[in-house]
């Protein structure tokens, strides 16, 4: 049976979903938004760089709540609302979270809109050691 994780330390979900689900050591993390984990009503950070930091930091909170870290991440799916404008700036921030020789597989997709007016959303697949 899968485990459904809703973590009190993680940002409040913006929809009806768990922060992560887990089965057989595979952990699927729901896409995180650039919301403040302590104040979901706070304004979003300005710009793609600050929003990307907040999204990945939020994902690290979820991972940490499951006793995992970015080193356990195998895949990321990234969604950008302003793909052509923000792709290079997004990559610069994203790159800073993963060593050159330990980057997860990744897909980056341009979308027309995201929840809460975000510029970026990222979901992850991780595996327990």
Textual characterization of the structure:
With 129 residues, the protein is an alpha+beta fold. It has one domain (3-127): 60s Ribosomal Protein L30, Chain: A (2-Layer Sandwich), CATH 3.30.1330.40. It contains 2 helices and 6 strands. It has helices spanning 47-65, 83-95; strands at 3-5, 20-23, 26-32, 73-80, 105-110, 120-127. The chain has a 6-stranded mixed beta sheet. Helix 2 links the parallel strand 4 and strand 5. Helix 1 crosses helix 2. The model has no long low-confidence stretch (mean pLDDT 97).
Keywords for this entry:
single chain; 129 residues; alpha+beta; 60s Ribosomal Protein L30, Chain: A; 25% helix; 28% strand
What topology does this entry show?
Elements: E1 3-5, E2 20-23, E3 26-32, H1 47-65, E4 73-80, H2 83-95, E5 105-110, E6 120-127
Parallel strand pairs: 4-5
Antiparallel strand pairs: 1-2, 2-3, 3-6, 4-6
Helix pairs in contact: 1-2
Given the helix and strand composition, which structural class is it? alpha+beta
Instruction: Pick out the low-confidence regions.
Output: none
DSSP summary: helix tally:
2
Query: How many structural domains can be distinguished in the coordinates?
Result: 1
Report strand %. Answer: 25-35%
**What is the architecture at the second tier of CATH?**
2-Layer Sandwich
Mean pLDDT: 97
Output the radius of gyration.
14 Å
**CATH-assigned fold name:** 60s Ribosomal Protein L30, Chain: A
């Amino acid at each position: 049976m899968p485990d459904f994780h809703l973590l009190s330390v993680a940002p409040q979900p913006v929809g009806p979903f768990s922060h992560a689900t887990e089965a057989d050591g595979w952990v699927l993390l729901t896409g995180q938004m650039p919301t403040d984990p302590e104040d979901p009503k706070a304004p979003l950070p300005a710009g793609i760089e600050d929003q990307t930091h907040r999204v990945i930091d939020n994902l690290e909170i979820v991972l940490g709540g499951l006793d995992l870290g970015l080193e356990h991440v195998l895949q990321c799916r990234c969604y950008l609302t302003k793909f052509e404008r923000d792709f290079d700036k997004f990559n610069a921030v994203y790159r800073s979270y993963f060593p050159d020789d330990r980057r997860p597989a990744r897909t980056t997709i341009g979308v027309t809109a995201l929840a809460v007016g975000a510029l970026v959303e990222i979901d992850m697949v991780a595996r327990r050691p």
